[in-house]
Amino acid sequence: MHQVVPEQYSTLLAEKQQLIEEQFTQFNVGDIQVFESEPLHFRQRAEFRIWHEGDECFHAMFAPGTKTDPIKITDFPIASKAICELMPKLITAINEQTILKHKLFQVEYLNTLSGEMLVTLIYHKQLDDQWIEVATALKQQFNIHVIGRARKMRLLLDQEYVMETLNVDDNALQYQQIEASFTQPNAKVNEKMLSWARACHQDAHSDLLELYCGNGNFSLALADQYRSVFATEISKTSINAANYAKQANGIDNVTFARVSAEEFTEHMNGTHLRKRLTGLGLEDANFETVLVDPPRAGLDKDSCQLISQYKNIIYISCNPDTLELNLQQLSATHKVTRFAMFDQFPYTHHIECGAFLQAK
After folding, report:
1. Is 324 noted as a catalytic residue in this protein?
2. Is the pTM of the predicted complex or chain greater than 0.90?
3. Which of 28, 49, 92, 175 has the most CB atoms lying inside 10 A of its own CB?
């Protein structure tokens, strides 16, 4: 990670853009839309090791490759303002209570634009009723949700999630974000990403297929643009969050199924039918558009082959290298007509991209 110097943000972003333009010029992507981040206070999640020295403990991070030379973190300007304000107050309160700081190993913050905060305290000891009593007082003091974790132990003082409200094209959408499950850390850039995906294509007479839907991030934001949405995800926690948010938003044209992209591909190809996918009306669906947001490994060849059967492809990627490989396969049947870069992770080498492909 580069040093966080807001004055350098534009320069670093331009360097990323140049890299992406060079890497994807082979696909004739045209002008790349660049969606920048706020230069400070853009992360809604942060995790820190807790380091103990004498009777005190503090937030710590380590230089890459080291685990024994902690850097004391007193200020973390890439985190949301709420996280930055809470960190010194929380560590002071923890240091005042032996039961809270004893064998405390890690702390994780999950914050939302809508103002909720969930803090997870992770220990190298088992937690008891006394810990619950003291941690409950901590929760009330700061008006936050608190979870205690230890080996084979997870204690909820009230709930395991926060509710985020994202504003996308003047629509306020609620999302359930569950502790320790994946959510986009840069909420403001996520809003821009959802808006871009909505602008790629809409068709009220056809259906949208989504693979790797997570907590319904794209599915729910695009639901009003298609007749129906069918979305798959392997994580049970994420599917539960997606269904919760579906109810919270009063959306009734989205179906979530807990299967992997590979399992869905096998089912649709007829090589291995899945019980979870039978009786859902897939045979009657008119999927003309598919949206994929795969992990860093990208899509395997079979999944690429599957999505190449659809007229329109919206591909969200967190790894330009695997996106490049997948586009090489997909360019046999499709042409990239829109391309975007989303700076989800300022001051790092990580780049999120979006490509909209249409059948040749």
Report:
1. no
2. yes
3. 175
